[in-house]
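User: Predict the complex with zinc ion.
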Amino acid sequence: MPNEGTEQVMLEASPDEIYDIELEHSLLEANKKLADENRALLDRHGITAIDFMGAIGSGKTTLITKLVERLKDRMGVAVFNGDATTSSDADAISKQNVPVVQIATINGCHLDANVVGKGLKRIQLEKLKLIFIENIGNLICPAEFPLGSRARVVVVSVTEGPWMVRKHPHMFLGAQVVVINKTDLADAMEVSVDQLIADVHKLKPDIRVIPTSCKRGIGIDEVAQTLLAI
Ligand code: MG
Ligand code: ZN
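Assistant: Here is the predicted structure with zinc ion placed in the model:
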């Protein structure tokens, strides 16, 4: 009986095997230096940059759109949209009549400080107080690449299921704010928002977690107030 019983094989990749191929240490160091330069440039102009990480479909673009709607009459706001293949997010934000920088990564799976720095040279910083940066929809490597923002936000959707937080700890450890979106769908998805919040706080007890339904406009004001206080 060749298939009798079940056998679970555990194969653990060592960091040497994976990270040496995908992420050279020197590359991360170079990125960190450029991120610090971006931050210094932003600080000189009195601009707060916030970057948003999260899966495709978590609601990053919708959240940013709603934040821009609320804030653009009070202060200069610009948005950077990272996208591997399309301009759909930048097109959506452009309807808000704020400066938009679309960063096409050509299938690249994260933004880095270099490309964000290039974007900063392409817009008039003098008029801005706030820059929202939407990272590529990806839960792994954006966490490794700081961009020079003052805070990082992770957007999680209940549609990503109950394991989402526990499977992606690095994303949360490097963030200051977590938005748990699409809470109106939690019952249908049989996902507990309270459990997701508990999972986040277990990783990082002092992180701010805000439940939202961006489509319905729930929780957006709290996100806006939180980000402006950072
Ligand atoms: Mg998007
Ligand atoms: Zn990547």
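The mean pLDDT is 91.
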